[in-house]
Amino acid sequence: MTHLDRETGDSAALKPKSIASGTPTGSRSRRDKTTDLETAIERYVPDGASIAFGGMGGRDPEAAAREIVRQETSGLTVLDDARTTLFDIMVGAGCVDRYVGSWVGTSLISQGHNVRNAVENGVPNQLDMRDVSNFGSSLMFLAGAMDVPFVPTRSMLETDIPEHNPDIEVVEDPLGSGDDLALVPAATPDVAVIHVQRADPLGNAQIWGNVVNDHLKARAADHVVVTCEEVVSTETIQRHPELTKIPFYAVDAVVEVPFGSHPWHCYGYYYADLPFYREYGQRSRDRESFTEWLDEWIVPHETYLEQIGAERLATLERMEAQINDLPPVSSSDESMEGR
User: Fold this and answer.
1) What is the mean pLDDT of the chain?
2) For the CA atoms of 108, 113, 116, 121, what is the dihedral angle to 10 degrees?
3) More exposed terminus of the chain, fewer Cβ within 10 Å: N or C?
């Protein structure tokens, strides 16, 4: 995470982005970027990387997170807004050393038992937690996307967050109002991993429903891996340009991962698998049962889906169709045929 050196005022990690000028370079050029999940994670998520995940309470890149665990990646810094099960799994597997964000847990089902165990007891390793407010987490990605070292805000003033987060600086307004401001340093992750409904081979990624901060994370990161429910043609993407929230020139890799957010929901595709969540909440309560859970579920994604079962997945699709209206896309779109 980029922050200002408190003595010199220099930026400690701010890196210029090729996308800041809108000029794609290298792996972000206009070309076919499709690859498989194992290759994408191995290439763009090395040990010691800083990483941001897309989605929030939906479209979470769960399959990508499980692949990170499967590859036994370690020493990660997670820069985020709010994160649920995938983060708890990664912490329990020993992948994460530091978290900067506003909230972690497993939503309505249970606490984040692995996160709590890591913070309180150092198991499996000590986790450095650096809190920001919900608004502050958005601002740190806004700063990264704008390629500026920080964004000032009144959020977090009169709280103890700046006291416990060494990255947050409280200063007097330099323009003379006399008010204090909190400086939220830019988040510039090495990689952002973002799950979307569909993308074309070039990397134009479409999101239906809540975009959260994903458009900012894509512009703030050095590299972007897009996983998607479906890879579709560029012509299909062009029929609904208003849904394209991440342009090709921000993307390095595109991976088709059906049910890539399971057990979370993906708007327009499938509902959340609440029984799976409940089981995880129970089995993550102690170290032995969680280790058994890892052995059972940290497998290649195709195997994971086989273990879930086609009937259960089809039920989640039917539930989503009954609960939510489909987004306003043309019935002629190839990805919507039969849905």
Assistant:
1) 90
2) 170
3) C
